[in-house]
From TrEMBL, chain A:
Residues 1-21 form the signal peptide. It comes from the Bacteria. Gene3D superfamilies: Porin. This is TonB-dependent receptor. Keywords: Receptor, Signal.
From TrEMBL, chain B:
Residues 1-20 form the signal peptide. The keyword Nucleus does not apply. It comes from Piscinibacter gummiphilus. Keywords: Signal. InterPro entries: AdhesinB, Bact_metal-bind_prot9, ZnuA-like. This is Zinc ABC transporter substrate-binding protein. The keyword Cytoplasm does not apply.
Amino acid sequence: MFAIRSAVAGACLAATLPAFSQTASTASTAATPETSFNPAISLILNGTYANLSRDPETYRFQGFIPSGGEIGPGGRSFQLGESELTLSAAIDPTFNGRFTAAVTPENEVEVEEAWFERTGLFNGATLKGGRFLSSFGYLNGQHAHTWDFTDAPLAYQAFFGGALKNDGLQLRWLAPTDRFIELAAEVGAGRTFPGSDTSRNGAGVFALMAHTGDDIGASSSWRTGISWLRHRASQRTFEDSDSLGTPVTNSFTGRSTTWVLDAVYKWAPQGNATGRSFKLQGEYFRRSESGTLDFDTTSQAGGPLSDSYRNTQSGWYAQAVYQFMPRWRAGLRYDRLDAGNARIGLVDNGTLTEADLPSLIKAKPERSTVMLDYSPTEFSRVRLQFAADRSRGDGTDRQVFLQYIMSLGAHGAHTF
Amino acid sequence: MNLRHLLCVALVGFGLQAHAALKVVACEPEWAALATELGGDQLQVSSATTALQDPHRIEARPSLIARVRNADLLVCTGMELETGWLPVLLQQSGNAKVAPGAAGFFEAGRFVTALDVPARLDRSDGDVHAAGNPHIQLDPRNIALVAKALAERLAQLDAANARVYQERHAAFAARWADALRRWEQQAAPLKGLSVVVHHKNMSYLSNWLGLREVGTLEPKPGLEPSAGHLGALKAQLAKQPAKLVVRAAYQDPRAAQWLSEQARIPAVVLPFTVGGNEQAKDLFGLFDSTLSLLLAAAR
Ligand SMILES: [Zn+2]
């Protein structure tokens, strides 16, 4: 290969050769530590002590269809978090792979991520397949142990039940420009909220995202983006209780479209974040759902009641984290959700009243959070966090968390 | 500008690319300077980091991802120095030309003999690097070894200009050998000089000049200097004095200043890499400046 390449004197042809043959042509270069045969292994230990003024069993986002995902502050007292085990390695000259399992405190193993990746599919393009954290927004692609606060923003919890993991494919392409411009598309089964688990063929979720970013001088940099996600939900069920207090199961079938805007700005003197640094980030979510609402799907008295459902809901958070000296950081976060004005056919035509669907009664949940954390090294961190959470629509939950995050094994690289 | 640039590349296509200079992204300023010495106008060189940044701790910023995406050659130290950020740049850039194992991925650390290779790998020893101490650039003999390998790699990647790289390398190697003789003469008085360093990032300099490192401000590699450790270091220096306390331009001055005042020894800020001070404009200036600062302080 090399002889052919030098014969045509290169750079031009090299640019047009498929990336794979380029890699093969230069395989004489010895292996790097990253490509040694043993995969890099890392294990994250984490846990919290939580003091919550209200019973976490009653946690909900008033006005939002329950996601059934990981919402709320978790349990009271000492809590073991998910222990996260990651293996990653180059598979061969073409593919990389990564596997992350989370062992829950209930002794169950969940596959968080399991994907292969093909870098340089064509110039600037990367294909990923398997189960992966969707790259929409800013925070979704990041593992929980890298978060700046103990818990996820309310918008992530209400709109996606935590983070959106996709079982599917992702294609990313980086434009050949001086400025960072990344376009990505994802397609997946969409089995988790706001999609639903069905036995159909085809895809349940499509997502498109665009991100751009740059530096401002030597000390600052930023990234911003817009994402669009379309989920298909069919018989996405949720529990509620009717106006008589009887538990009922309802379900939604239809289309769910989510827009996400995200932005992050980072500062460090001369780009040296060892001493002081500052990070500002925010995301805005807006979701429109339209379709059919089935009321009391398990009704014994002749089938569920069905009519239209339409709503546009939104939510956002903004947070700032300041590292004021080596190892110490303080942070501030504000979350807000808007449940929107749901158009529920069954209520509009008088079949039901609002009181028959109490979890959908309009509200504007919000939360304010402060945190202080200390990291003796980049492998260990302890954090103290206070929050006033007004998500339930009736009063405030005062939350105190003391958290540890410990990382064993391979040194993970951090995304921006 | 960017959109037009994109269209232009698409339309003019290969013809445009064949004449374009090879785009080199260096992970550290010393390798950017070396590539410029070897490639001159044939190359379009930039450095991902500056002398005022800690090369262990760099953010994988969008601007760097874009630069790696467009690079034909990545010149890095390797030896796990960039492990906290380079893998992200490589993964997100989607550029197979510079992936590990490809000809466009050059690790300088492979061409030198490593110092401080740990006998055991244990994080309780701090942030140790399995492949040895990665701060290889402060021994000019290492620069000569890397220069030879890098010139060969440039000739391999850009075969049409192979002669240019060979000639420029021959000229550089001759100038460097002269400078090396001069530096070694100048530095003769530094032999056996006992110094305290901030981080174990001066080992190659010490090894070259015969300096004796009697302590570090960091209690363990990668850990910030603590009051307790500095106190113990001061007590130790009372028994076995050191002549200087040395740090790199990017490191926090406070610990070195404290020790300098307490132990009454000069604190010296070395440029550490190209761009670390006014005089260190290129690789020659880096060593001229390093030696003159050490000689002035040791007098
Ligand atoms: Zn180091």
